[in-house]
Amino acid sequence: MKLFCVFMFSLFLFLSCDSGSNDDNKFQSDSDVVNLNDESAVNDESAANDADIPSYTDNETTDTEASDEDLISGYIPNDPGTQQYAAVFADTGRTGDFSVTDPKGNGEEIVTDSATALIWQKNVPANGLEWQSAVDYCENLNYGGYSDWYLPTIHELMSIADYGKYPASGDSYFGDIPAFEFWTSYNHPEYSGHRIIDFEDGMDSLRDNSELFAVRCVLRKNVPEFTGTRFTTLGEGYFSDALTGKEWYFTKDTPRGYADADNYCATLSAGGKDAWRVPGLNELRSVVNYRKYNPSSDFSDILDDYYWSSISKINDDYYRWYIYFSDGGISWYVPSIGGYVACIHD
Hints:
alpha+beta; globular; four-stranded antiparallel β-sheet; 16 strands; 5 helices; single chain
């Protein structure tokens, strides 16, 4: 408990010094931001319920132009408990997956992602919207020959972040970006407001519904569903994932710095298998269920704590990205500070 308190205090001091990264929002200041790792936020009844989230079917695809070593299994659910699918997409170098077309020849361009089967609105509103207005905007949008647009989930919107770039936005494929911060359709299981993605670096945070942020709508077409039991327990902290075909081993014994975490996975032997490794950020996020809390996963034998990914912060590769499995928030931290270890087997 003492170690945890020291860790959280150090994290607070460090992140406080880096608060300038959100100052470029054209729409309004970040004074009301709620850090997803801060449990002092107050819950109220204004958070949207599951009925606010649009329901669509899903697809499975492995078509991507990223190099083989960059391919990782991401996870894009509609909403936990409904259809799901696995898509192969990279943490970095994602530009080869995107293509831009103008279906109607009127300048209403769309961006198709071959890796995830998602279709994105390219030209987005110049002005920020409140969250409910963002939902209404997408639901009423008639653009590019389509009328079934919706506000993306957090998994969907994060899938177009490129963690090998700074900013982490999608280059010219996504046009002129009015601001880095975009709304998602997901609320927090405990606190009010909805999550945004900041494409300056790819981080997410919880914001008040009355704040103004950018909107990019998404849709899916002709996508089959995943059926069956997803997780199978193989031992303590050890499970297989039928959706992605991966096996996972989550430690709960002691926090480790990143170098020790990397060595732990490299030397791990579990289930008669060697060649384990620290997962990429999108891989680690594949077991996050943003509708659950403490832990934020359908597999409950995970600590509601910090787990390392193998991805370093692009504009300062000294730091490593991690996921906080209390609520699924992502952030980065000093690799010498202890976090817990998740190992993945292909």
